[in-house]
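Residues determine shape. Take a concrete instance:
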Amino acid sequence: MDWWLTDSEGIVAFWLLIFAVCNGLRGAYCRLRDKGERRVVKGLLASRLHPVRASFHLGGIAEAAETAVCMLVDDGVAKVSSTGELRPTHRGRKQTDQALRALAEAIRATPKGTTTKLHEIPAEARFTSFRERVEREAPAVHPTVSGKSQSLMLATSMLTSFAMGVHAGGVMALTPFVPDVHRMSWLYVCMAAWVVQWAAACLWPSETRRRWKALDTFCKDVAEIARAALPDSTRQAIARTKERPKPPPSPSQPARHHTRSDSGASCGAGIDTCSDSTCGGCGGCGGE
């Protein structure tokens, strides 16, 4: 035990082992935490996932709305203009899916003379029922990595490197592998240990990384099959209204110009106050 706590090489090995144990415990925790979601993903891959729910898993409510609109247009419930504006047809196949039925009803409730655009569905209140149904029936899995494991392990690498230096200074240990140099060389040893641990911590997936690649591929295929029922020109027209247009710039205010008299006194803008018709002119009432 003394080798681990007092010997130079033992101190380095001790804190590297601590870092390895932290990684192992975090890995075991993530394995147990994701056990339920792995079971759900396996069931989804073996099922007939609805295209709207598949699109929601890929890109949220915006992707789900685009797929839903394509399906309604294909069913004849709505028609789309060349500019991507949606209008109800008051005909077409009856929708059995609750989310599609809610969207069809909202489009049919559009006031006469107005249209619906794709970017309005994720934002406007009249489509709340559609959004709530999609979110409620979406796959119960986190699409991206959760738990911030990479951040935690990067922080652990810094703490263990700092603790290594404090430990070595407390027991007055010589520099490992080169005991003849000054003990201040421990600073370089701790920096080297931090680089090694930092590289290992970077192997953990970042929080923005997609977690279920097989499910992503499956959902992409399901959504693409549903959208492919429409001609490419129609799909492109719908996609053009996905982004809300930017408001026009406000008109600039005209510049205001002020004039000043030669003497620098304020005699009014563009008005001659020094004419003969005044009481004595600019000299005051005492002038002739």
